[in-house]
From TrEMBL:
Domain of life: Eukaryota
Name the record gives this protein: PDZ domain-containing protein
Domain PDZ: 10-51
Origin species: Halocaridina rubra (Hawaiian red shrimp)
InterPro entries found in the cross-reference section: PDZ (IPR001478), PDZ_sf (IPR036034)
PROSITE patterns to which the protein is assigned, alphabetical: PDZ
Length: 51
């Protein structure tokens, strides 16, 4: 479990065959930005998780 003070959050999602996990990430490896979730598709596993 992540330490809430670290800003890290672990999320468990089951991938959908039709839309993947249902979110988009900006930044990350090879970028000057940390990974940031910036879009969640309505009705997707990510949206349904309410996390």
């Amino acid at each position: 479990m992540a330490d809430p003070r670290s800003g890290v959050k672990y999320v468990h999602l089951k991938r959908s065959e039709t839309c993947g996990f249902g979110f988009s990430i900006l930044g990350g490896a090879g970028s000057d930005l940390p990974p940031i979730v910036y879009d969640i598709i309505e009705g997707s596993p990510a949206a349904k998780s309410h996390q």
